[in-house]
Specification:
This protein is an alpha+beta fold. Helix content is 38%, strand content 26%.
Length: 287
């Protein structure tokens, strides 16, 4: 067994030695006689050339596909980035448009404001309405942190909207003059006759509310202007309420009654002015 192993080792060495000698001989012949091995190189080149071409074609195809995949990934990433930028720009444009609209509301409010010039006022945006869709109450975006307190009068369109009834940190609620539980002491600006403007949501469906307790002898007619009176403790005097129509004698024949169309467009109210004064602090304020 040792002899067989020894023989195999000898044979392996002889084969290795033989191959080394052939390689050395080939190198020497190629160096000394370069033209001798030209046919061999040509034959080998002819044998391997198709294989190299195939490898090159396959490699180019794989490279092209890898490049296409990379380009596609880059395009997808670029598209995602541009989509995010577009959404961000849309958000910014919406914010700019909102600020523009609010500025327009505020400008109109202050242009229409001609009462209580010495009183501090603050503009507010309507951020909530009665859940049933009626216009008897509104929620504003200004509250206690802005100095708003219950009892402050609220205006828009140059006329009376209502009165602040409740405040939170950054919000306040307003009861409008058309609400069923609203009663505003008014007077006819031409004749100084007093009256009572009563909210009536059912009547408001036709665009007006009630005026009651007009003196039977009052010389008042349709389209006469009604403003808040000096009577009462809720509303500052001289605020425009609206214009009367259908003046007539009531059922008792002791007073006159009428309808009044408020100047405020409650259906489309977006912004208001809050007069930062209450009736108790009226002293010193001039129209």
């Amino acid at each position: 067994m040792r002899r067989e192993k020894k023989r195999r080792n000898i044979s392996s060495k002889l084969v290795y030695t033989f191959l080394v000698m052939i390689c050395i001989g080939t190198i020497m012949v190629s160096y000394l006689f370069p033209n001798v091995l030209t046919p061999v190189r040509t034959a080998v080149g002819n044998f391997f050339a198709p294989m190299q071409k195939g490898i090159t074609v396959v490699g180019s195809g794989i490279s092209d596909k890898l490049k296409l995949f990379t380009d596609k990934q880059d395009l997808l990433e670029e598209n995602e980035r541009l989509t995010e930028e577009l959404e961000q720009l849309k958000t910014e444009i919406q914010g700019i448009n909102q600020e523009k609209n609010e500025l327009s509301y505020y400008r109109k409010l202050y242009e229409d404001d001609s009462v209580y010039n010495n009183a501090e006022k603050i503009a507010a945006i309507v951020i909530g309405r009665n859940p049933n869709g009626s216009c008897d109450t509104f929620t504003l975006d200004k509250g206690a942190d802005d100095g708003i307190t219950p009892g402050m009068n609220v205006m828009a369109d140059g006329g009376l909207v209502g009165i602040v009834t409740e405040t939170g940190k950054n919000w306040s609620k307003v009861r409008t003059i058309i609400a069923d539980d609203s009663a505003v002491s008014g007077r006819f600006s031409i004749t100084s006759d007093n009256c009572m403007v009563k909210g009536n949501m059912r009547r408001w469906e036709d665009g007006y509310i009630d005026v009651e307790m007009i003196n039977i002898n009052a010389d008042v007619y349709d389209n006469y202007e009604v403003v808040t009176s000096y009577i009462g403790d809720k509303y500052l005097p001289g605020l425009l309420i609206g214009y009367v129509s259908n003046v007539r004698t009531d059922a008792s024949e002791l007073n006159k009654i009428a309808y009044i169309t408020p100047v405020v467009d409650f259906e489309h109210l977006e912004a208001v002015l809050i007069i930062k004064a209450v009736r108790e602090s009226l002293e010193g304020l001039e129209q």
